[in-house]
Amino acid sequence: MKEDLSGFLPLSPAPLHILLSLAGEDLHGYAIMQEVARQSEGRYKLGPGTLYDNLQKLIQREWVQELGRRPGDDDPRRRYYRLTSLGRGVLAAETARLAGVVREARLRLQIAKPRRA
Amino acid sequence: MLRSLYRCALRLHPPAFRKRFAEEMLSIFDHAKATPAALRLFLDALLSLSRQWTLRSEFWHDAPGAAAPQAVSDGIPSFYTISPFRPRGAAFINGLVLSLALFCVTCFAIRYSWIHVLHVRIPEVQFERPSWIPPSHTTSGMSQSVQSLPIAPQRVDTTQTAAVSAPAVPQARRSAATVARRRPVGRPKETNPAKPENNPQPANPTSTAQGEIEQALDIYEGSYAVDAPVKFTILITTDREDGSLRMIRSGQPGLRLIPLSETKFAVQGADNCWIEFMPSDSARDSPVRLLQFSCNGKRYLARRR
Predict the structure, then answer these.
(1) DSSP string computed for B99-167
(2) Using one digit for the tens of pLDDT, what is the confidence trace for A82-106?
(3) Prediction pTM value
(4) Is B7 helix (H, G, I), strand (E, B) or coil?
(5) What is the mean pLDDT of chain B?
(6) Residues of chain A contacting B, Cβ within 8 Å
(7) What's the pLDDT at B207?
(8) Using N-to-C axis directions, what is the helix angle for B15-31 and A48-60, rounded to 10°?
(9) What share of chain B in percent tops pLDDT 70?
(10) How far is CA B35 from the centre of its chain?
């Protein structure tokens, strides 16, 4: 039975970018900040306070899972996070919603585009 | 310097957030090499601090689901505390000391307060000597004195080996008899000078005991006058039937006196009232001259007329 995820949408930018950064692989907090900056080409930067505040909510909603520390890491204080299937579903729903928004926007922009005589 | 401030800001976060993310946030701060970046992270920590305490009250404590005990399905009850808070060990010690101090003060107040609200009567266990043992075989002085107490015949139960004393009349008789033994008036022995001192079976112990009681209570009988603050008269008489003292206050019916000690008697039927006789030190067998009547916290000194 497919869960209705429309109640969670739309996502604010910070959760969206965090989910998107975790969609590829498990990352620790600093890596998530770097990945968000890379995805947005430096236009959107998360501070640690904002990052962990959102991670706290995402963990509570079980969209993200905390994996703990990894022995081989160069900094033992780092903890890794993983996107859960529920979080992946929410991210997919938000992406589809955004795709519809983009499609609609493009359609509207083409209609509003002035025709050349 | 800035790192210390950053750590302080992290320590001021709610406990659950601090335990979960403070180390990681400090790790990220350590990645910042330049001062502007560190300053920006510090401002971010301050912003996070205000956000966590104002907007994230649901995350102030650990998630309840993690700490809640699992439901027991086999019917065994489980007990757990609602809050994980536990007082410090020093608080336990302080509470123990205060409780002991309060207990001691309460006991001291009960013992020495002249307002005897509570007359706690602790029943005493009395062992009676079997009839086949002569009194000369008893080695303990205390048991001998107990055995030789004259007790009114209607209350004597020779088959009972151990009995809890009844509070009112028998106690009054025993106490009065104790007074008689401790203060031999002399008349009974003078009337029977040939009788041995330690005769185990007197010829008529009941009449002898009754006579001793009456003789002992004679020193209390009389009329006592209270002059201040209110003038009234207290008449102390002896009830010949049961050998107890009675107090008659002017214009009121007589009340039986229950002995609490040799000189102190509680007034039966009147709560918080008692009489204390004050024998003169010079002649112990002479009639009592003074008594103190206390009732409901008021004290009256009465002199024999």
Answers:
(1) HHHHHHHHHHHHHH-SS------PPPEEEPPPTTS-GGG---HHHHHHHT----GGG--TT-SEEEPPS
(2) 999 999 999 999 999 999 999 999 9
(3) 0.43
(4) helix
(5) 70
(6) 28-30, 33, 47-50, 52-53, 55-56, 60, 75, 77-79
(7) 56
(8) 140
(9) 56
(10) 72
